[in-house]
Fold this protein.
Amino acid sequence: MDPITRRTMLAGTAAGGVFASSLARAQTGPIVEPKRPGHGGTNPGPDNQTIDRMNPNILVPPAQDHGTLPNLRFRFGDSHMRLESGGWTRQITVRELGVSKNIAGVNMRLNAGGIRELHWHKAAEWAYMLYGTARITAIDADGNRFVDDVGVGDLWYFPSGIPHSIQGLGSDGCEFLLVFDDGEFDEDNTFLLSDWFKHVPPEVLAKNFGVSADAFAKVPDPSELYIFAAQVPGPLDTDKMAGATQPPNTFSHRLMAQDPIRTKSGTVRIADTKNFPASVTIASGLVEVNPGAMRELHWHPNTDEWLYFIEGTARLGVFAGSGQARTFDFSAGDVGFVPFAMGHYIENTGSTPVRFLEIFKSNYYADVSLNQWLALTPRELVEAHLRVDQATIDAFHKLKSPVVPV
Ligand code: MN
Ligand code: MN
């Protein structure tokens, strides 16, 4: 790429991502000066323009960005894809996104009939259905039985150590996001049913189940299962079992059936133990921000925030204290992270709605609004700090509005 074209692209990114027009200008129009005259320069060396175009706020950061912050974003598209006969899986753990010590995420696809093998693990598992339909099963330690069908927008939560399975339904199976309450979690290292059977002497299996020693001779090798192809099961009501009892707190939740918090500019649906009592270690919010709008300046008083972008494009600006701030760009399939208590905003940078999940390792959802804080603080105190006029103070909102403008 020649320097002139390159410079034009930098200017386009600085202006907020009008890439098509800036590139078109490069072919026909005049050179556009970078947005921060006197700063930076052209980039004539090796580079990946496709990546650059997705990173306008990394390439030409806001002038207010300063200091060193750790990386706060990782794309599922940059994760290793594990391909199996029944679908695929990929993960973003502390190994991919080093700052995320207490949350890991997995993105999984199960084809129609495809089964994520019966298994359990030390971490608790929270899920959001991204596509299609699935059947999930579990039992709890008291012998309560759980079977349910879930669709787009539904959640599930399997507590630590509880055995479960997932199977793709319908004509085209499902895709979902899994969130684990441990950054070290590894989807490739769970307790698999077939793995245990392969590592118990046959006479012990025979004694345990009261059957002959050759009853389990055909159990497949674990490498054949994990995520494997199978027939789509029958309707849910054929899966009922006489005499079985349900867990006291159901493991699934219909998030889209909730009335959202609604502002002029978007919506928020919160699920935590107040309305999804089973989910004792994960609280979540599904946020929709209209074009031109923004998840307001705020922070979380309880823990780190783990983000997953479902659709649209956005930028996340994080304030870390001590003069440090950094901005990251996001699009569908990206994971973000905001360390505990750091101030931040998420602004829609595209022309379509942006939808994302806010995830917290907590039994409750909480945020502190900068706007509400200032509106509820004595005026003289605010004036003395910010040197703003009365009209500005009048504009502050006593009622929290998670998505602005109101
Ligand atoms: Mn699991
Ligand atoms: Mn937040």
In short: The longest strand covers residues 125-132. Residues 83 and 89 are 7 Å apart (CA to CA). Residues 298, 300, 305, 338, 344, 358, 367 surround manganese (II) ion (ligand 2) (CB under 6 Å).
